[in-house]
Amino acid sequence: MGNAKSGALSKEVLEDLKTSTRYSEEELCRWYESFQRQCPDGRISRAEFEKIYGTFFPNSDPQGYARHVFRSFDTNDDGTLDFREYIIALHLTSSGKTHLKLEWAFSLFDVDRNGEVSKSEVLEIITAIFKMIPAEEQKLLPEDENNPQKRADKLWAYFNKGENGAHPKHPGIAPKTNPKKTPKNLPKLTQKTSQKIPNP
User: Fold this and answer.
1) Compositional bias of type Basic and acidic residues: which residue ranges (predicted)?
2) With contact defined as beta carbons under 8 Å apart, do 199 and 92 qualify?
3) Percent above pLDDT 90 for the chain
4) 86/68 Cα distance (integer angstroms)
5) Contact (Cβ atoms closer than 8 angstroms) between residue 191 and residue 103
6) Lowest pLDDT segment from 30-34, 38-42, 145-149, 173-177
7) Distance of alpha carbon 92 from alpha carbon 95, whole angstroms
């Protein structure tokens, strides 16, 4: 985080961002000045983020998806995005390495943040995505993925998972379950806290 009072970017954050992104010191300082102009208190709230996100999808309902994207970016779970989270998100989505993009995608689908993804979580994210697709475009989708349930089923099948997370060819092999939670079924991805930041 930068120093909000002086308007300067702290050396610690600057060095961290130079190491973990492809941006130069000059670029980061320019990004920070712009960020400070738009967010004088140095943070973007979820409501502000959803409003900004909505401008990119004026003819649809992106609020649900924006909420999930914000959650995946808000790595310290404080209800806001600071400059560091914002920049790593930009880097990750525009030029980040594939494995980091996959880690972000995992964090997006891991709605309850328990380190695993269930079919119900996949359906929740796919449903939010579908709300951003105009109805006329949805009609053009292939028959086997023209609604959220079909798309979620197709994605789930791609990972070779049964309804309860068991491998279809080995139904006796199922993941550990927690009676208080839906069984989680996708392979875990290890995420370093410093890399778990996403994209606006």
Assistant:
1) 140-154
2) yes
3) 38
4) 15
5) yes
6) 173-177
7) 6
The share of the chain scoring above pLDDT 70, in percent, equals 74
Q: What six digits make up the tokens of 92?
A: 């990750």
Q: 81: helix, coil or strand?
A: strand
CATH topology of domain 11-159+185-195: Recoverin; domain 1 (1.10.238)
| Model confidence pLDDT, tens digit, residues 54-91 | 887 888 898 999 899 899 889 888 999 999 988 887 78
Q: How many whole angstroms separate alpha carbon 191 and alpha carbon 56?
A: 29
Q: What CA dihedral angle connects 12, 16, 17 and 23, to 10 degrees? A: 100
Residue matched to tokens 């990119």: 56
Token pair, residue 68, equals 């999930």
Q: Are 165 and 95 in contact (CB under 8 A)?
A: no
The b-or-e profile of 127-162 (16+ CB within 10 A means b, else e) is bbebebeeeeeeeeeeeebeebeebbbebbeeeebb
Q: For residues 112 and 181, is the Cβ–Cβ distance under 8 A? A: yes
Q: How many CB atoms lie within 10 A of CB 3?
A: 11
Q: Which residues pair with 81 in a beta bridge?
A: 44
Q: CB-based contacts of 154: which residues, under 8 Å, 6+ apart?
A: 144, 145
Read off the pLDDT of each residue in 15-36 and give the average, rounded to a whole number: 90
pLDDT at 171 over 70: no
